[in-house]
Specification:
The complex is a heterodimer.
Chain A lengths: L1 E3 H11 L4 E4 L6 H7 L5 E4 L3 H15 L3 E5 L3 H5 L1 H9 L4 E7 L15 H4 L6 E4 L6 H13 L5 E7 H5 L1 E3 L19 H13 L3 E5 L1 H5 L3 H11 L2 E4 L14 E4 L6 H9 L2 E5 L5 H4 L10 E6 L13 E4 L2 H13 L22 H12 L4 E5 L3 H9 L8 E2 L10 H11 L4 E7 H4 L6 H7 L4 E6 L4 H10 L15 H7 L3 E5 L5 H10 L4 E6 L24
Parallel strand pairs in A: 2-3, 2-4, 4-5, 5-7, 6-7, 9-10, 9-12, 10-11, 12-13, 13-14, 15-16, 15-17, 17-18, 18-20, 19-20
Antiparallel strand pairs in A: 1-8
Helix pairs in contact in A: 1-2, 1-7, 3-5, 3-17, 9-14, 11-14, 15-16, 15-22
Chain B lengths: L1 E9 L4 H11 L3 E9 L5 E9 L2 H13 L3 E6 L5 E12 L5 H10 L3 E5 L3 E8 L1 H11 L4 E6 L3 E4 L6
Antiparallel strand pairs in B: 1-3, 1-4, 2-3, 5-7, 5-8, 5-9, 6-7
The chains are: A alpha/beta, B alpha+beta.
């Protein structure tokens, strides 16, 4: 039976297991929206395409499945760019669908025509311009396969309108075989053997959990190895939650903005087992000064990450979970030298109206309730990463690699849609919040009980802090001169508004907001002079940190 | 150091942009690039000459592999290969020098493919050294225009014992 291209797209999406799409309509996707209407796929109408792709990313990260965003051609497509780049840097599996002008008009600078496959070339894992309606079902199947296998990432499909209008038979694609794309899933046996010997002998083993541990769902295997060897664990920002924070083996986040004890352990250890991470410059600061005594075992599914920033003594390309299963099996047969466990630094938070303290109180109130925290980017993000204890994978959703302000609110939308029964809290600052706050409209419309915890210092705090460290305190362009009435804004979007003005307000206000069952905006005024400390400044090794401002 | 890479890619639209874009955005320099289809019409072969140290080359190779359209990357630098380049040169020539140029080009087995009143065009194929030598030998006569293709290369067939 002949079917319309748009219908074939919907069929293929459903066959790929899609139940939810975050999108925004337009002229080039009219047929797709027409077919979407009664398809059974839930469409979440966002307020800006950027919000749509961030929401798809939050959805993907909360659930561990591919997120789908849909936009029209031209400005619809260009609005996606920041979100696609964010997902690309953090290896988040997305399929992004854009409309395109009809094939006959491509290249004529037609209305709302943009070369989105050209624009997204460096920020997608792969992209397609669909040339024939007959190719559509195969391309959709390939896109899902590519997005979620190997190192995950965003894949874009650009569909000219006449392809969506065209007709052919729908032939479901059940098995994708690409001769040019075959991720390495299992570690090299020689390297695995070597790694087992080195880990078994290590006297001071530090395990680093990166985002790859979460993508590979390898938390249990990491836990097993750590316990077997009595190792210490540190994490990148992307890996938070992969190993329980409350465990004594966990020292904290490492890196420029990391925990001093975690950084010291990395610099002191004799063996560093780096799992699903890429030695980003915010993680290692200076390659030459990084982990000078360590035999580095680098496990990553992307061969291009091996040796890119830091030379590995033992490189293992493979899926972190598969590699760990084999390492653990090997280790069980070895006589293990117990590792010297580094002591966890006591958490030391001053009582008062500051972000770390508010987060501690928040966590106390939440207790065991299943919670997802999203953040925006800036000081509040670093404080959240360091001071909220993440004990489970997929409970911390934040833009790591690209550092995209405006990520947190739409990501919370995606996370809440993905997990309707969980408590979803977006921690943000007044700078980031105003970058994507149009998505309050989506939250209102979808009736999502999201809690937005907005720290307001009327300042772009992180940039201000950088100007403090690097520009001798010459603050430029970082202070908001006029106050926004966020309570009025909350009212406009149907949210319950709360303000925390004193230390005494913290517990009662948070408690009420957490238990009211509805969309809430909690504004907490903080001092703009606060610094995220400790911090390892540029050129310094990560254990050489500024402790006091 | 110069490296010759043989890159097999899916013969899809946009694949050249994907490969060349990768080089520019990661800061690698392409010396030359030749693309054509192969005995299998669904596969194109790119021969890319890139300048860089071993570490750069390792990254180039790995990043190329990451492109979904790239099937295979071979570094031919240390292989026994035959490599050829096509050269066209317009060189100044009048009836005093014409004979000398023709004689000279015979030595290189280069051909004269066009003769005008004041110039002629030489066509030659060869490896980089030969092409360089031809250009040098023509320079005293007055080289007016040079067009070169990139390098096409193939690994030598295994020899019998």
């Amino acid at each position: 039976m002949q079917q319309q291209g748009a219908q074939i797209l919907i069929n293929a999406l459903k066959d790929a297991g899609v139940t939810t799409i975050f999108g925004y309509p337009g002229g080039a996707v009219l047929e797709i929206y027409d077919q979407l209407k009664n398809s059974g796929i839930k469409h979440i109408l966002v307020r800006n395409e950027q919000g749509g792709v961030h929401a798809a990313s939050g959805y993907a990260r909360a659930l561990g499945k591919v997120g789908v965003a849909l936009a029209t051609s031209g400005p619809g497509a260009t609005n996606l760019v920041t979100g696609i780049a964010t997902a690309h840097m953090d290896s988040i599996p997305l399929v992004v669908i854009t409309g395109q002008v009809p094939r006959s008009m491509i290249g004529t600078d037609a209305f709302q025509e943009i070369d989105i496959t050209g624009i997204t070339l460096p920020i997608t894992k792969h992209n397609y311009l669909v040339q024939r309606v007959e190719d559509l079902s195969r391309i959709v199947a390939e896109a899902f396969h590519i997005a979620q296998t190997g190192r995950p990432g965003p894949v874009l499909i650009d569909i000219p309108r006449d392809v969506a209008q065209g007709y052919c038979e729908y032939i479901p694609v059940t098995n994708v075989e690409l001769r040019s794309y075959k991720p390495t899933l299992y570690g090299h046996s020689g390297m695995l053997k070597k790694a087992v010997k080195v880990i078994a002998q290590a006297q001071k083993l530090v395990v680093v959990t990166g985002g790859g541990v979460i993508s590979a769902n390898a938390e249990k295997e990491v836990y097993q190895l750590v316990k077997m060897k009595n190792a210490s664990v540190v994490s990148t920002m992307m890996g938070l939650g992969a190993f329980p924070e409350q465990d004594d083996h966990f020292l904290g986040m490492m890196g420029t903005y990391g925990n001093l004890a975690a950084n010291q352990a990395v610099q002191d250890c004799d063996c560093l087992l780096a799992l699903g991470m890429r030695f980003d410059d915010r993680v290692i600061n200076v390659p030459e000064k990084f982990a000078p005594h360590a035999q580095i075992i680098h496990v990553d599914i992307d061969p291009a990450e091996i040796g890119k920033n830091v030379e590995a003594h033992i490189p293992i390309v493979g899926d972190v979970k598969n590699v760990l299963i084999e390492l653990n099996e090997g280790l069980q047969k070895e006589r293990l030298v117990p590792s010297q466990n580094y002591p966890k630094a006591p958490t030391n938070v001053a009582e008062g109206l500051n972000v770390p303290y508010v987060l501690h109180e928040l966590q106390k109130l939440i207790g065991q309730k299943e919670t997802i925290i999203t953040t925006d980017v800036g000081q509040h993000q670093v404080w959240t990463a360091n001071h909220y204890g993440f004990n489970q994978a997929r409970t911390f959703i934040s833009s790591g690699g690209l550092g995209t302000m405006g990520y947190g609110i739409p990501a919370a939308v995606g996370a809440q849609i993905a997990c309707p029964d969980k408590l979803v809290i977006a921690v943000t600052g007044d700078g980031s919040f105003q970058m994507c706050m149009q998505e309050l409209g989506t939250i209102m419309e979808q009736d999502l009980p999201i809690k937005i915890l907005l720290f307001n210092n009327q300042t772009l705090g992180m940039v201000r802090q950088l100007q403090y460290h690097y520009c001798d305190g010459r603050y430029s362009g970082v202070h908001f001169q006029k106050t926004v009435d966020f309570m009025l804004l909350a009212k406009a979007y149907g949210a319950k508004g709360y303000q925390i003005k004193t230390k005494e307000d913290i517990t009662p206000v948070l408690s009420e907001a957490l238990n009211n069952g509805c969309f809430s905006l909690i504004e907490c005024a903080i001092d703009s002079n606060e610094l995220c400390l400790p911090i390892a400044l540029g050129g310094k090794s990560i254990d050489d940190m500024v402790i006091v401002g | 150091m110069k490296h010759k890479l043989a890159v097999l890619v899916e013969n899809n639209p946009g694949v050249l942009a994907k490969v060349s874009g990768l080089f520019s955005r990661r800061g690698y320099n392409i010396d030359s690039l030749v693309v054509s289809d192969t005995e299998d019409k669904s596969v194109s072969r790119m021969t890319i000459v890139v300048d860089g140290d071993a570490k750069t080359l390792e990254q180039v190779t790995k990043q190329l592999h990451k492109l979904v359209d790239v099937i295979k990357v071979n570094d031919l630098t240390n292989d026994e290969i035959v490599s050829r380049q096509l050269l066209l040169v317009r060189v100044a020539a009048d009836h005093d020098t014409r004979g000398e140029i023709i004689q000279l080009m015979d030595i290189f087995r280069a051909r004269i493919i066009d003769i005008g009143r004041r110039s002629l065009i030489v066509e030659a194929t060869g490896d980089e050294d030969k092409i360089e030598a031809i250009i040098k030998s023509l320079q005293p006569f007055g080289v007016q225009e040079i067009v070169k293709t990139g390098i096409s290369a193939m690994v030598r067939s295994p020899k019998e014992k």
